[in-house]
Specification:
The protein has 1151 residues and is of the alpha+beta class. Helices cover 23% and strands 26% of the residues. This is Putative glycoside hydrolase.
Length: 1151
């Protein structure tokens, strides 16, 4: 190959000391937030004499250093280097940005990306220089709080590629980036990393950019050494390339002893021909993003030391395995062909066969057939009556719980194994309480849809259309998307599943035309269904609109048009130009509008991932100018209609009532039932019922359940002497969380926002009525304030006589399988007071004192006194508590939390008391006054300061506070305009995961658009707030809301333990976390893709568009869970604000 000029990296070994960083040829730091220290490090390097060290100084940082690359020419080159990091690093990366003559970016090539503490690691990555590239920038980036080092950077020719270096997937000295589930990865030296756990239900992995091009015929070999306690017999290796995954299965030799062995995948699977392929797209070996090792998900203990994972040339034994694999595949292909023929000829129908529930239009020539297979049955608890042959199998998670009146160390969960009619032991549920209550879990009945034929045109027949109208024709195309719609029972054969099958017709249907759809080769209960094309009547899944509806004076009203068929991709609606609103009463057209492209399928959205998250064109149907109250359908001529929706003054008020019902249903320490709750729920965790909560010696800054367990174990001693524990009878009440029943300091945020809503519109909230217990419904307080006080007053009870506030109540583990909140047998503790909780409480109590001042002066005075005592205690004790917490190994991010809540408490107390000392305390810790820190974490304080009376505020600080909120709102609007469904946040760098309420909450992690409107009254901020509610209100590709009991379709299986364990449907008002990016990797995500969705979802779960990726299966926390302070508060606050604002030109009259 002819040589050509290569770009050179100047001072890539950092031998020359000069310039702003101490390293010649490198730029000054470029910082987006925080403070970045960049120095030439002569003490820590890969090669003498130095490396370059980037370090977060004093808080989280996002910044970089760079060097321009000269002499770029079209073609390719390699960049090599060595990296390592330590500390709490969110992102560490080396990348090349290639730009044209006008500095427009042509390509971004990430050379290496990693996080976590690591030894020095080598990388080598190919860079393709496109035509037109005139400029390149080599960048070293750091995000987070840690430190990274870079050394030995160089550019080399492609033909000098180091094949041995490139073939290494993992080396022990580098360690794993993360572990998850039951497995722990420890160590990290040349001798190996130990992967161990009490069961094989977990794994470990690395995030690393790897280029494995040209190595497809090689076999991934794992060099490992079994430990003495290892009992697992197999492993799984997963190699990910963003949207595709190659999976390899390994059998471990049983006679290896404890000697190192080299294991290769079953049947000689190679990089290009793995054991299994998952995900969407084409696996690109040049763009590997992560590598994971997983256990086999059995209960066998794991003890393995892994030294290396490398791609190797197949030897004779492996080649023989590959030949046998080829022969087996040929036999399986023939067997499959015969099975398909048999299934087509004789589908197995019956009363419990899958049912066709709807046929809906996606286009004049495209129909979607919705089929439901199986039925999941909720089962209530029942008395456990022992039967002959019963076995109680405890899990391997010992905890502290009560049994027969004693505190014992015992298994967290106990599964009942019972013989079935065939004499086989099968799981029959869990026993709880004193092992006298049985929860049978859920049950399943019915047949699944025949997988052999469902995707074949021959399985369907279209009659009444085309040239062969009588005998029928096959559809032109068949496409499918299938997902589970209920919890599964460990196997894909027992999962209630929704199938949506798109059938392409041979000709478009005219209005009024009828087509009969037959299922000659599919095992549906109906052999045939009839569909009459009536676009003005039939609902189309392609048209999405808010199921909350809108107020007449809402300045934003929009529907959306989009459809993804699954394995057939997106649907083009280019020919659609107009839409209408139809009056539900008489089907008359009352509005006509233009269909406009929102975000095209090939456009990357503002969401993280630099790609499109809908996988189809999304069109916008705007009807903001239409203001007439009524019930309507959005109609696209020739296509179909949306769900009915309302335009009415009470639209947001009705939504607020649903949200507040959800909060009410999560109260602890009170009995609830009809009409407040759909089912009877006894009073949970109240001292008058004999329930004890014990005082802990640790704070909430040191952890959650694990911290509780360890501290109670320390106090109890080996003899489990409860006499050594102190009971805290005041520790009851508050709002419980989702998958557990903790009540922690973060719940104060919910109370704060509810009180802020009342403060912004006091007259409105004084007049409205909510579902509350009688004594609260009849008092003088605003009902929303009453709900807020259920949490505030818990923490007022948790205030000590000295003034410190304890940070919450937590159990020693997550709830036991099958146990309801009022049956809790786990030991429960209340945390010791800490300064962060005390500041946080002081802020909320001070706001409560102002809000309650008119309705109940005495109660307001009590909250004022509590707020001032909490603030004084926090100031006097913060240094001591921080030091003690750090000495016990806790306290991550304590200083930033202290600043956030001290500034908030100070401004709220200043507003309440007008005492100058609080104004000075605010100045001392607020980023507005120049205090170092992250301004994003102090939005609450900024908004509170911006609303201070002019007589109290420093004009310059007030202007800065107002500017901070408005600038954040502008960022949020820009972000919303960059994605298809108007998702809104002022923090664009957030990962697209459900834990953030990314799709289910307005504003995601902030309230800046609401607050910007409150400060300015500008309509565009109001419109942005309403738009931010669309997706979660049902204007999404799933046509479902993300709050139970809201709209036409809502979640059926949120992670709500009390209803699940008692066989009831969940209460209304639960806003789940919602969709997550299906391409997210890591322990919290991978297990569900592997063990809950594989074999059920089609296409592969990783291939779904993010905007449609919600699976209603109860047990997946990043989707099905929720918390009081992550989802409930933001929807209630936002919907309440939208309900409370005055009507345009007239005062609001709440109903």
């Amino acid at each position: 190959m002819p040589s050509r000029a290569l770009p050179a990296i100047q001072n890539g070994s950092f031998t020359e000391a000069a310039g702003p960083t101490g390293a010649a040829a490198w730029s000054e730091p470029s910082v987006d937030r925080g403070e970045l220290s960049v120095v030439r490090d002569t003490a820590d390097f890969a090669s003498a004499p130095a490396s370059l060290r980037l370090e977060a100084a004093g808080g989280p940082v996002s910044g970089s250093v760079s060097q321009r690359l000269e002499d770029l020419a079209p073609g390719a080159f390699l960049v090599r280097g060595k990296v390592r990091s330590s500390g709490d690093v969110d992102l560490a990366s080396v990348a090349v940005s290639l730009r044209d003559a006008s500095y427009e970016q042509l390509a971004w090539v990430e050379l290496s990306r990693w996080s976590g503490g690591r030894a020095w690691r080598s990388f080598e990555r190919r860079v393709e220089v496109p035509e037109g590239a005139a400029d390149g920038l080599l960048m070293i980036l750091l995000q987070g709080r840690g430190t990274l080092w870079v050394d030995d950077l160089e550019v080399v020719e492609v033909d000098r590629r180091d094949a041995e270096l490139a073939s290494v997937l993992f080396r022990a000295e580098d360690g794993f980036d993360y572990d998850f589930g039951a497995l722990d990865a420890t160590g990290g030296s040349q001798s190996g990393v130990r992967l161990s756990g009490s069961t094989a239900r977990g794994g470990a992995g690395i995030h690393e950019k790897l280029d494995l091009s040209g190595l497809g015929a090689r076999v991934p070999e794992i060099r490992l050494r079994p430990g003495a306690t290892n009992r697992t017999s197999s492993l799984t290796l997963q190699i990910l390339a963003d949207d595709a995954k190659h999976v390899f299965r390994y059998d471990l030799p049983r006679d290896a002893g404890t000697e190192e062995v080299e294991v290769t995948p079953r049947e000689g699977a190679t990089l290009q021909d793995p054991s299994r392929v998952e995900g969407s797209g084409t696996f690109d070996p040049a763009a590997i993003t992560s590598v994971q090792v997983l256990g086999d998900w059995t209960k066998d203990p794991v003890d393995l030391t892994i030294r290396e994972i490398r791609l190797v040339e197949p030897g004779p034994e492996v080649l023989a395995e590959q030949a046998e694999r080829t022969r087996r595949r040929a036999e399986e292909a023939e067997a499959h062909r015969l099975a398909v023929e048999a299934a087509l000829a004789n589908p197995q129908r019956g009363e419990d066969a899958p049912r066709v529930v709807a046929v809906r239009p996606v286009g004049a020539d495209l129909l979607e057939v919705e089929i439901h297979a199986g039925r999941t049955i909720r089962q209530p608890q029942q008395p456990y009556i022992k039967q002959p042959g019963d076995e109680l199998r405890p899990d391997e998670n010992p905890t502290l719980r009560r049994l027969d009146g004693r505190v014992v160390v015992a298994a967290e969960n106990v599964r009942l194994m019972r013989k079935n009619d065939k004499g086989e032991l099968r799981s029959a549920g869990y026993v709880v309480g004193d092992q006298d209550v049985l929860w049978p879990e859920v049950d399943f009945e019915g047949l699944l849809l025949e997988p052999l034929t469902v995707d074949l045109p021959a399985a369907y027949r279209l009659m009444g259309i085309g040239n062969a109208a009588a005998e029928g024709v096959e559809p032109e195309e068949v496409h499918r998307k299938s997902r589970p719609v209920a919890p599964n029972l460990e196997t894909a054969e027992r999962v209630e599943t929704e199938h949506r099958i798109a059938l392409r017709l041979p000709a478009p249907l005219e209005a009024g035309q009828t087509v009969r759809i037959g299922f000659p080769g599919l095992n549906t209960a109906q052999q045939e269904v009839t569909y009459t094309h009536a676009p003005r009547v039939e609902r189309s899944p392609a048209i999405h609109v808010s199921q909350i509806g809108y107020r007449p004076d809402d300045p934003h009203k929009r529907a959306y048009l989009s459809h993804w068929t699954g394995d057939g991709g997106g649907v083009a609606f280019d020919a659609v130009e107009r839409f209408e609103l139809l009056d539900e009463r008489n089907d008359e057209t009352v509005f006509r509008g233009e269909v406009r492209m929102g975000v095209a399928q090939d456009t990357a959205e503002s969401l993280q991932g630099d790609r499109n998250h809908s996988l189809t064109d999304v069109f916008h149907l705007d009807f903001s100018d239409f203001r007439t109250p009524g019930t309507y359908r959005v109609h696209v001529p020739g296509l179909g209609c949306s769900f009915p929706f309302e335009i009415r003054h009470e639209a947001w008020m009705d939504a607020l009532r649903v949200a507040m019902r959800g909060l009410l249903a999560h109260r602890s320490g009170i009995a609830l039932g009809p009409p407040l709750l759909p089912y009877e729920r006894p009073r949970p965790m109240h001292p008058d019922d004999g329930f004890d909560v014990y005082q802990l010696g640790v704070t909430t800054l040191e952890g959650e359940a694990k911290a509780v367990l360890e501290d109670l174990q320390r106090q109890l001693g080996d003899g489990l002497d409860t006499g050594r524990l102190t009971v805290a009878p005041e520790a009851w009440g508050g709002h419980m969380d989702a998958g557990d029943w903790d009540r922690n300091r973060n719940h104060l945020k919910t109370a704060y926002l509810l009180l802020e809503a009342v403060e912004l519109h006091p007259e409105f909230f004084t007049r409205i009525s909510l579902a509350l217990p009688e004594d609260e419904a009849s008092d003088a307080l605003p009902d929303v304030a009453n709900e807020a006080l259920w949490t505030v007053d818990l923490f007022r009870r948790l205030q000590t006589s000295e003034g410190g506030v304890r940070g919450g109540i937590e159990s020693a583990a997550h709830p036991r399988h099958g146990e309801a909140s009022w049956q809790e047998t786990l030991l429960v503790g209340v945390f010791a007071p800490d300064h962060v909780s005390s500041y946080h409480f002081a802020a909320v109590a001070a706001k409560a004192a102002r809000v309650l001042a008119v309705a109940d002066p005495a109660l307001a005075a009590a909250h004022r006194e509590a707020a001032e005592r909490a603030f004084a205690w926090a100031e006097a004790n913060e240094a001591r508590v921080a030091a003690e917490v750090a000495a016990r190994g806790g306290g991550n991010n304590v200083e930033a939390l202290r600043d956030t809540f001290r500034s908030l408490a100070a401004v709220e107390l200043y507003n309440l008391t007008e005492a100058p000392r609080y104004h000075q305390a605010f100045r001392d810790t607020s980023t507005l006054a120049g205090h170092p820190g992250n301004a994003l974490e102090q939005h609450d304080a900024a908004f509170a300061y911006a609303r201070l009376p002019a007589s109290l505020a420093d004009p310059a600080l007030a202007d800065a506070a107002r500017a901070q909120i408005l600038e954040a709102a502008e960022r949020a609007i820009a972000f919303a305009e960059g994605n298809a469904f108007g998702l809104t946040t002022d923090i664009p760098s957030l990962p697209v995961m459900g834990w953030l309420g990314y799709f289910s909450t307005p504003g995601i992690l902030s309230e800046v658009c609401v607050r910007a409107h409150a400060l300015t009254g500008e309509e565009r901020f109001l419109a942005a707030t309403i738009r931010s509610c669309d997706f979660a209100a049902g204007a999404n590709p799933m046509n479902r809301t993300l709050t139970t009991g809201l709209g036409h379709r809502s979640p059926r299986w949120p992670l709500h333990m009390d209803s699940h364990h008692t066989g009831h449907a969940p209460p209304p008002g639960i806003t789940v976390y919602g969709p997550s990016d299906p391409q997210l990797a890591g322990g919290a995500f991978d297990w569900a893709h592997t063990w809950r969705l594989a074999g059920v979802m089609h296409p592969d779960s990783r291939a779904w568009p993010t905007s449609e990726f919600y699976v209603d299966i109860f047990g997946w926390p990043p989707m099905n869970e929720y918390t009081i302070h992550q989802t409930f508060h933001r929807v209630a606050y936002t919907w309440g604000y939208l309900a409370a604002r005055e009507r345009s030109g007239e005062a609001e009259e709440p109903s």
